[in-house]
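Q: Okay, next protein. This is Cof-type HAD-IIB family hydrolase from Streptococcus sciuri. I've checked the sequence twice, so it should be correct. Can you predict the 3D structure?
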Amino acid sequence: MAKRMIALDLDGTLLHSDNTISDYTIDVISHISQLGHKVVIATGRPYRMAIQHYRRLQLETPMISFNGSLTHLPDKKWSKEQNITLDKKYLLATLQMSEAIQADFIASEYRQNFYITLDYPNRINPTLFGVPQITESMRMDINKITRNPNALLMQTRHKDKYELAKELCKHFDYNIEVDSWGGPLNILEFSPKGINKAFALNYLLSALNMNKDQLIAFGDEHNDTEMLSFAKVGYAMKNASQTLLPYADKQTDYTNEEDGVAKELEKLFL
């Protein structure tokens, strides 16, 4: 079989809801990697919240995080690393609008750390940032805004997060991407314009001398739409959002809790 690139989302796709990967999935992916296929994590998570899963899978491929703004080879120098950041002026402008957009918090995300507003500390769930608690050292301070972030994250009390996302895109003259998380959380994510998982995968395929006819992708949420549409074969998980289904070529027979990715890969390659 021709070698493939297999792009895997994490949350709701490869991971169980308790943030774990089963031994069965590890074994299947290990066998597929040994056959020469390139298994690639493509996640909306920041790097620091994805690296543990990369290491558990014992991958040696580049990793895509921040929904496509960072493509790099973890723990190694790689001449083809791509790191696209968001101009910090958008962070400063959003902070000034904090009350108008009813923000519980605004956070700037970087490869290894983040800063967050602490006006409403009781409304912050530390697990969203992969930490046990929010500390004073993580407080957003104007003096700390010295570099461009990979992404911004905000939680809003606005009654319609989708409408607010549209309003913010318009406010910034459509020069950035503002998207909502799936599910019940009122979370919005700000990204550089035109950046998504498909953008990063297109770059990575070129860097590795591959083409999109070799790409298979798995996802479950609306931030996977471009990726599944771009791939030669895009799989929506059985538990996928209805928003994603029109962009998928196929749907898995099993959910993320049932190791749906591994079962599909085992049918395809083993």
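A: Here is a summary of the prediction. The chain has a mean pLDDT of 93. The helical segments are 10-14, 23-34, 51-56, 88-96, 161-171, 197-207, 225-230, 260-269.
Q: Noted. On to the next one.
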